[in-house]
Amino acid sequence: MQFTEAPPQPFHQMTSFSNPTMNKNQIHRTRPWPGFPTSKSLAGSFGDANCMEQLLVHCANAIESNDATLAQQILWVLNNIALPDGDSNQRLTCGFLRALIARAANSGSCKMLAAMANAHSNLAMDMYKFSIIELASFVDLTPWHRFGFTAANAAILDAVEGYSAIHIVDLSMTHCMQIPTLIDAIANRHEVPPLVKLTVVTAIQDVPPILDFSYDELGSKLVNFARSRNILMEFRVIPSSYKDGFANLIEQLRVQNFVYGESNEALVINCHMMLHYIPDETLVAIPTSNSSLYYGFECSPSPTSSLRTMFLKAVRSLDPTIVVLVDEDADLTSNNLVCRLRSAFNYLWIPYDTMDSFLPRGSKQRQWYEADICWKIENVIAYEGLQRVERLENKSMWVQRMRNANFRGVSFGEDAVSEVKTMLDEHAAGWGLKKEEEDLVLTWKGHNVVFATTWVPA
């Protein structure tokens, strides 16, 4: 999720994709391929998402097969219909167009396109660094994050009732933006509030949103806010990374669990859109010495035992009071580029579509929001191996993982459902809520967007 202060260079202004001697009829007469529409039908379907998706798929196949001529021809068509300032489908396609060019430049498999990209386009985006106020405002723009915050906080409040101390491990890509509301709710519920311990891992530097403040400053503000609500809070940052499955975090929690295991302290593991960065089975990585030592596994992660699996089993060994898992409901794990492209295209149209309902063109927040999506698209399409960190799994896959780790799903209470519905009333009419067994799912125009699940040791 990368952010820029200025929108990317418009591809329709890049002369490298233009061929004044070539028209659309010549393109398809010279290089026809099965299933691709004729130039006449294409001209009448410029705004059709299915047509754009097919163009992207054929372009991806051409780049992967090092067919520079075909790829250039398709890119010429895409460049004329995928306008960066067009409608939501055009802007979405523009993001994928940019990612495919970046893939060609990164891999060098299509030398003509790589040279084109290097000569005519600055594919690297500048990271926008958020202040605390800006980030808080940004995550409140849509229910994308607020849904998970609201559902999780309601579940946590119910789970920690009666404990004199609450230890919250916040694994969140939003840098504790959920916590102030939770502190406020705890203060309102208890005459004598419990001690709150908040543990976070060091900020991920290579995945946005990026902060322009330190976690020491963030912790100080959270502690002061808690004090204003008559809550004593302890804030701790543990150096740990998703790349080895947060091995150091697990080791530190085990030590603390040994020390405080007999006290009346609730352990809350709050996972908000961060666990999908832990390597899964499609990326068999060699663990660090920390991951081998702290997890207590003798073997390396394998096609049947990934760091993602090891992390969940390690969390289960801590016997937490509750685990909340919130993430985006899509599958971007395939090692096949075309499968990944189709999945991403048929999921990431949603944020572009929602944007048109609440953010005016040209606004700075809209630029941040679109750059967020563009970064995700580029990471999913342009990169492979360890560099491809956006490895979303859908809800059913996470449910199976949690059950395999010996967790049992818990239903959200009526208060949680009511609070989520109240929150959704503050946003556009297209947002909705549905319940799938014990879980809650945020929807946009009936399509699954984000899921929220809660778990306890089985």
Write up what this structure looks like:
This protein has 458 residues and is of the alpha/beta class. The chain has 17 helices and 11 strands. Strands 2, 3, 5, 6, 7, 8, 9, 10 and 11 form a 9-stranded mixed beta sheet that branches. A two-stranded parallel ribbon has the order 1-4. Strand 9 (431-436) and strand 10 (439-444) form a beta hairpin. The longest helix is centred in the first third of the chain and has 20 residues, at 88-107. The two termini are 35 Å apart. Residues 1-44 and 296-301 have low confidence and may be disordered.
Q: Main attributes?
A:
single chain, 458 residues, nine-stranded mixed β-sheet, two-stranded parallel ribbon, 15% strand
Task: Please give the radius of gyration in angstroms.
Answer: 23 Å
Give the overall average pLDDT: 85
Coarse shape: globular
> Beta-strand percentage?
5-15%
Helix content: 40-55%
Give the beta-strand count: 11
Which class best fits the helix and strand makeup?
alpha/beta
Main pleated-sheet profile: 9 strands, mixed
Give unreliable regions as ranges. 1-44, 296-301
- Helix-strand sequence: HHHHHHEHHEHEEHEHEHHEHHHEHEEE
- Compute the number of helices: 17
Task: State the separation between the terminal residues, measured CA to CA.
Answer: 35 Å
